[in-house]
Design brief:
The chain is built from 17 helices and 22 strands. The protein is α+β, with helices and mostly antiparallel strands and 561 residues long. The protein has two domains: 288 residues, D-Maltodextrin-Binding Protein, domain 2, CATH 3.40.190; 227 residues, Dipeptide-binding Protein, Domain 3 (Dipeptide-binding Protein, domain 3). Strands 1, 2, 11, 12, 13, 14, 15, 16, 17, 18, 19 and 20 form a twelve-stranded mixed β-sheet that branches. A four-stranded antiparallel β-sheet has the order 5-6-10-9, covered by helices on one side. A two-stranded antiparallel sheet has the order 3-4. The longest helix has 18 residues. The chain is globular, with a radius of gyration of 24 Å.
């Protein structure tokens, strides 16, 4: 997913045993309930599969919906979803859907999850036609899906429809052979194409409900789903609750839930660790930065701390259309002046890796520090000052104070604030540039970045599928809806367009390395900061998986004594 945007959300989770009236399943004091919390006040932007782009939105979708395919959250390997099998003939992908998957919704009056039926009272099950309707909504230009282009790039006719060049969805290469067989004409065959066809924006949607409720179709009581959980309650700006779906039969890859419900609370970050240590929260999936030293020194808390691999990249974007950031030498100067090692050692303290480029090492065809140690950009005070001198000369001024005020903006978070303050100080000490810091609540911030990005903005990106193409092309190609920098490079586009057509991994890696150099050094459209690690704390009584992706799979969790 995705930005952190899919991809900047921080989470806390708690597991407690509560008696909840009206929940699905056993209704006694032994019910297993997981309570989680989004970091910071503010609502989840959207749980519409066609619209969601950030990790908080997508987390909800991925626990209530299932794609044609899925990825294992621990190994990141491709697994079946609602399609139990598929085959490829040239560039035609044929998916065979599992029969009898029931559409459901939570009925607040009945206090339980109920089956959705058609006008004749027959059970409404997921069909290939529901997948086609979901695709048609996502690709319809009037929907305004930011993720539509990811799907459109890989399906014959999809770009023409999504761009408005073609008036009818009939040009798109997807068709139902029967209710449970789907054929898709891909632009090209590639190992990661089945992963794209399983992403949230490509999931089935229930046409009759979407059309019946309009903009209200995602509200609790209306929201149709078919995955391991159903939407029970959404108190905007306060909480979202999912409840186990008893109609989900489970399979080898996505089992029936063991827990009865999951609640996300929208809490300020200051409440996280206090609640955990008080016993009110049982899992913290983003540990407050200023508490890391104490946690690691504590004999009990350190045993509950887990640091693992993560696919995400943390970066600052530059709006290259806004003065004075339209000056490439200034952008390079700012990036060279960031001491990334100091940030991970003294601020984040969670084993993060200083990033020299954007795509996370470990992805297929991505450069690694071993294969390309000299690729990208890193801390170099002398280079920073040399680039500053060139920037001043280019703009015909003698001192940085003559530039208009530069603003760095991040979404509201103590962690992001501490990182911004550290970098603010580095820019002041190394370059004599005084940068103002501002922040906004998450949903507002996403809208700001999309519509008119600040001069400098903070975002992250996590893998939708484990290939460098997802980072270098899906985010930074000139046509990407996630490229908020107002930067475009024909040379960069040509490199990533060529790389994805090649079968040799090392040839692809070399082209992506060249593209990264253009992105972060030659044109300096962004400044990579670090590659994430997954830093979490979990009480001993919680049985759970640790995801290397951006979402957790709560149907695999359990609560012990």
């Amino acid at each position: 997913m995705n930005q952190v945007l899919r991809k900047s959300t921080l989470w806390i989770l708690t597991v407690t045993l509560l008696a909840l009236v009206g929940a699905v399943g056993a209704q006694d004091d032994g019910m297993k309930t997981v309570t989680t919390a989004f970091l910071g006040p503010g609502d989840v932007p959207s749980i519409d599969p066609s619209i969601g782009t950030d990790t908080s939105s997508i987390q909800i979708v991925l626990n209530t919906y299932i794609g044609l395919t899925t990825q294992n959250e621990v190994t990141a390997e491709l697994e079946p979803g609602i399609a139990h099998s598929w085959e490829v003939d040239g560039t035609t992908y044929t998916f065979h859907l599992t029969e009898g998957i029931q559409w459901v919704r939570y009925d607040p009056e009945a206090g339980e999850v109920v089956a959705i039926t058609d006008a004749d009272g027959n059970a409404r099950t997921v069909t290939a036609h529901d997948v086609i309707f979901g695709w048609s909504r996502t690709l319809d230009p009037e929907t305004g899906s930011d993720y539509a282009y990811v799907l459109a790039d890989w399906v014959v006719g999809a770009n023409e429809y999504n761009s408005g060049e073609a008036d009818s969805f009939d040009v798109v290469g997807i068709r139902a052979i029967d209710d449970h067989t789907l054929e898709i004409d891909a632009v090209a065959a590639n190992a990661f194409v089945p992963s794209i066809f399983g992403m949230w924006m490509a999931m089935p949607q229930l046409q009759e409900v979407v059309e019946m409720y309009g903009d209200e179709w995602t509200e609790a009581g209306n929201y149709p789903s078919f995955g391991p959980f159903a939407l029970k309650e959404w108190l905007h700006d306060e909480s979202i609750t999912l409840t186990a779906n008893p109609f989900w039969a489970g399979n080898e890859w996505i089992p029936q839930p063991v827990i009865d419900s999951v609640t996300w609370l929208m809490l300020p970050s200051t409440a996280q660790l206090d609640a955990y240590e008080a016993g009110d929260l049982d899992v913290v999936t983003s540990v407050p930065l200023d508490a890391m030293d104490r946690i690691q020194a504590d004999p009990v808390l350190s045993e509950e701390l887990n640091i693992g691999y993560d696919t995400c990249s943390y970066y600052y974007g530059f709006n290259t259309a806004k003065e004075p950031l339209d000056n490439v030498h200034l952008r390079r100067a700012l990036s060279f002046a960031i001491d990334r090692q100091s940030i991970v050692d003294n601020v984040t303290k969670g084993g993060q890796i200083p990033a020299q480029w954007f795509a996370r090492p470990g992805l297929a065809a991505a450069p690694t520090l071993e294969s390309h140690p000299d690729t990208g950009i890193w801390f170099d005070a002398e280079e920073a000052q040399a680039e500053l001198a060139l920037a001043l000369e280019a703009d015909g001024i003698s001192d940085p104070s003559e530039w208009e005020q530069i603003t760095l903006m991040h979404n509201t978070s103590e962690g992001h604030a501490k990182i911004a303050q550290a970098i603010q100080q580095m820019w002041s000490e190394t370059l004599g540039i005084n940068v103002e810091i501002a922040n906004q609540e998450w949903a507002t911030y996403l809208a700001t970045v999309r519509e008119d990005a600040p001069q400098i903005y903070r975002l992250g990106w996590c893998a939708d599928y484990l290939d460098a193409h997802n980072y270098n092309s899906d985010v930074w190609r000139s046509t990407s809806s996630f490229n908020n920098t107002n930067w475009a490079s024909e040379e960069y586009d040509n490199l990533v367009d060529t790389a994805v057509t090649l079968s040799d991994t090392e040839e692809r890696r070399e082209l992506y390395a060249q593209a990264e150099n253009i992105l972060v050094y030659h044109d300096a459209a962004i400044s990579p900061i670090y590659w994430y690690t997954n830093v979490q704390m979990t009480k001993p009584n919680i049985s759970r998986t640790f995801s290397v992706l951006f979402q957790d799979r709560y149907e695999k969790w359990d609560v012990g004594q």
